[in-house]
Amino acid sequence: MKDMQEVFDQIQELKQTKKEIAREYRDILAQDQEFQELKEELATLRDKKKVREQNAQIGMGRRWEEYERAVSEIAELDQMLTDIAMTNLMDGKSLNLKDKHDTEYEPSYKIVFKKID
Question: Cβ(89)–Cβ(95) under 8 Å?
Fold first, then answer.
């Protein structure tokens, strides 16, 4: 098995290659007149779509406000659940959950490395 540093170095090299190819790709598209026209048309359509969405939201009134409140509350509760789970994990407690249909849930972990500034 490779060690962490070898894998990290390989990832860094591939990221650099990916970055160079993406730059070439963007340059080619920037020179394509038809692509530029499509991009402008897409921006116009996106603006029209946004206006339609805003009109629908205004039309829904309080119901839309309730939706936005629910989205915000879900985000807060998700963060709270994560905090509680981390505390329970450090205390050696079980982290399994069940919903109202008796479907079991288990935690999923992900470790990400960030550059130290």
Answer: yes
- Max CA separation in the chain (angstroms): 61
User: What residue ranges do the domains of the chain occupy?
Assistant: 16-89
Q: State both tokens at 30.
A: 């920037």
Reading the block at residue 68, the tokens are 């936005």
Please give the chain's pLDDT, 117 residues, in tens.
Answer: 788 999 999 999 999 999 999 999 999 999 999 999 999 999 999 999 999 999 999 999 999 999 999 999 999 999 999 999 999 999 999 898 999 999 999 988 888 999 998
What's the whole-model pTM score? 0.69
